[in-house]
Amino acid sequence: MKIFSNPQELKIYLKEIDKTVGFVPTMGALHEGHISLVKKAKEQNEVVVVSIFVNPTQFLKGEDFEKYPRKDEADKQICKLSGVDVLFFPQAEDIYTDDEVSLNAPRIRGFVLEGNSRPSHFDGVLTVVMKLLNIVNPTRAYFGKKDAQQLNLISLMVKQLFMSVEIVPVDTVREKDGLALSSRNVYLSSPQRKEALKIVSSLHSAGIMVSKNILNSELITNEMRKILAPLEISYVEILNRDFQKIEILEIGNSVILVEAKVGVTRLLDNIWL
Fold this sequence. Notes:
About 40% of the residues lie in helices and about 20% in strands. By secondary structure, the chain is of the alpha/beta class. The strands form 2 sheets. It has a 6-stranded parallel sheet with strand order 1-4-3-2-5-6, sandwiched between helices. It has a 3-stranded antiparallel sheet with strand order 7-8-9, with helices on one face.
């Protein structure tokens, strides 16, 4: 496995190999969810590149940038054992300067749900993903469906800016108890982890209602809120896959999304129907 920190050196190396490239951008603290992205990338490409970069521009003031879990040596070993060909491990000064051109999230889709509670968060996400895609110039890039709004906005950016990369969504990986894998799960105490399972239960209940042909969005989300209580709920929404609110759930074109805080830990989850 080759390791690069300099963007230009990585660009030159990848240009010279002339092979299909699958790219998995991460913020480290790798887990089975990330490994599932790597596996999909290996299936579909000749070379797999993983980046590890805790991006400062997507954290708001007072958020957990300094405390965000960093496991650099373990992550390198996980990448090596997973068959990653190239690891891109830059520092902030390799990616950003003092006078930056940046992207703004779209005024509607970028400022609902997580974007509503974290204004400017998706500006930082889109800016760093654009930079990383331009550095790696991959054939395909892989993102988890758990971060559904992020996935939607990155796909929109690629489409609207006429980029040639194919964005590949990958299903959410869950722990044995059903909790969606997240680097932030390490923040949860044992009692908080049990509380976090209310998120899973609320989505399971929604799925049962849909299976019984109960498709009214308000009925479904009201029931979910009851199950989630007393967690601090940021949002419970049913949207179509263009991220527009819908009154009646459309099978094959809908996402049910939840964001809630367990203690001080913000957790996201969703189901695609």
